[in-house]
Specification:
Length: 319
């Protein structure tokens, strides 16, 4: 299952995604979390040192190897140079199994002392400054999601860039659930409205988390401005505040109100069955849009032909 955490910057995306990943891992569930934000500090919330990070590759550093890998024997892609971030899988493509990552991706993964697997898209290299935007770093994650096989009891969590920035690529449509975090401010409500508006043509499962709720007035403010009560309500948490200050807090030492919400979030996912056909439909639609928008001109080739009408994820899963 693929889960995205989105929301206004500072709303609590990193904090809540990290705590949720830790909560799942403590249930002995296979859990990987990706730091896909431009401000990369998720590792510290998982008690993974910056020193370990410095010795581990980022996903963006493996982008060329990823492009080489996913082609496989797919006849619709003649060269890795013709792969872009939205290139969809086809017959012959190599897919990525979450439980059996290829070696070059394993080189990006660090396992925390609670068995949460962590990877990052990467931050700016000195050579990137004033030359590339952060979307270039997200490309590897985008391509991985298009070729990822995730099975029951496997959780792929991404802490994405702030606001509605994920709509700048096709990544927003590649998750089973999107946890959209809203705090009691007009700015945070505005991000929700943007996200809802941009997502209106897609069947996204968006769950709203009301975060940093100190009193009934906070909850009333969010409810009135959303037009409905948030799916989950998280009171202002001392445990999360301490985590953000660099202190380590065990999951069992978090407030009962917080752990109860984490359990409710987990339970809300249990009856979901992945719609592989819908995933592929959106992947193909977005790829064609990207090909016509910039890819064909950039690569001087018709990338729309990479869409393979004969490919079906279910055939791959049943092999």
């Amino acid at each position: 299952m693929r889960i995205a955490f989105v929301g206004k910057g500072g709303s609590g995306k990193s904090s809540l995604s990290s705590v949720f990943a830790r909560y799942l891992a403590q249930k002995s569930l296979d859990t990987i979390i990706i730091d896909g934000d431009i401000n990369q500090h998720l590792n510290r919330l998982l008690n993974i040192s910056d020193e370990k990070i410095s010795k581990t590759s980022s996903l963006s550093q493996k982008y060329q190897e990823l492009k080489n890998f996913i082609i496989g024997t797919n006849p619709k892609i003649q060269s890795p140079d013709l792969v872009i971030n939205t290139t969809p899988p086809g017959v012959g493509s190599n897919l990525i199994e979450l439980s059996n990552l290829p070696d070059f991706l394993n080189q990006c993964v660090i396992k925390s002392n609670e068995n949460v697997k962590y990877a990052r898209v990467g931050d700016f290299e000195p050579s990137d400054i004033a030359v590339k935007c952060f979307h270039a770093k997200i490309s590897a994650l985008d391509l991985i999601l298009s070729h990822l096989i995730d099975k029951p009891n496997q959780y792929f969590i991404a802490d994405l860039t702030a606001g509605s920035d994920s709509f700048a690529s096709g990544i927003f449509a590649k998750f089973d659930f999107t946890f959209l975090i809203v705090e009691p401010t007009t700015q945070s409500i505005s991000v929700y409205n943007q996200y809802k508006n941009y997502a209106k043509d897609y069947e996204l499962n968006i769950k709203v988390i009301g975060n940093k709720i100190e009193d009934l007035a906070d909850l009333d403010f969010i409810t009135e401005n959303l037009g409905f009560k948030p799916d989950f309500i998280i009171p202002k948490s001392t445990a999360i505040k301490n985590l953000n200050r660099g202190a380590w807090v065990e999951i069992q030492d978090c407030e009962p109100e917080l752990t109860l919400v984490l359990e409710k979030m987990y339970q809300s996912l249990q009856n979901y069955e992945t719609d592989w056909d819908l995933r592929l439909k959106y992947m193909n639609q977005i790829h064609i849009k990207n090909a016509l928008g910039y890819g064909n001109m950039q690569k001087r080739s018709d990338l729309t032909t990479q869409v393979d009408p004969g490919f079906n994820f279910l055939d791959m899963l049943n092999d």
